[in-house]
Amino acid sequence: MIHKACSSPAIETDTLTAETCALPVEAFPFTCFTCLEEIMDESEIRYSEEIRM
Ligand SMILES: [Zn+2]
């Protein structure tokens, strides 16, 4: 998942592999892995199937 505000991964990549398609709604809010801002809901993230390094 990509955090729109910083265009960087919102959660750790290791976690992403397991839960990329199904983030439970109860997971919000959580802290962005990259910029440490709080992400309140899905509108602040973008699902990305490709991980570009
Ligand atoms: Zn961020």
Task: Please give a quick description of this structure.
With 53 residues, the chain is α+β, with helices and mostly antiparallel strands.
What does this structure look like?
It is a single chain. This protein has 53 residues and is α+β, with helices and mostly antiparallel strands. It has one domain. 13% of the residues lie in helices and 19% in strands. It is built from one helix and five strands; from the N terminus they run ββαβββ. It has one helix at residues 13-19; strands at residues 2-3, 8-9, 30-31, 38-39, 45-46. A hairpin with a 6-residue loop joins β3 and β4 (38-39). The two termini are 14 Å apart. The model has no long low-confidence stretch (mean pLDDT 79). It binds zinc ion (ZN).
Total number of distinct structural domains = 1
Number of helices: 1
Derived structural class: alpha+beta
Distance between the termini: 14 Å
Structural features:
two-stranded antiparallel sheet, binds zinc ion, three-stranded antiparallel β-sheet, alpha+beta, 53 residues, single chain, 5 strands
Furnish the topology, listing elements before pairings.
Elements lengths: L1 E2 L4 E2 L3 H7 L10 E2 L6 E2 L5 E2 L7
Antiparallel strand pairs: 1-2, 1-5, 3-4
This protein binds zinc ion.
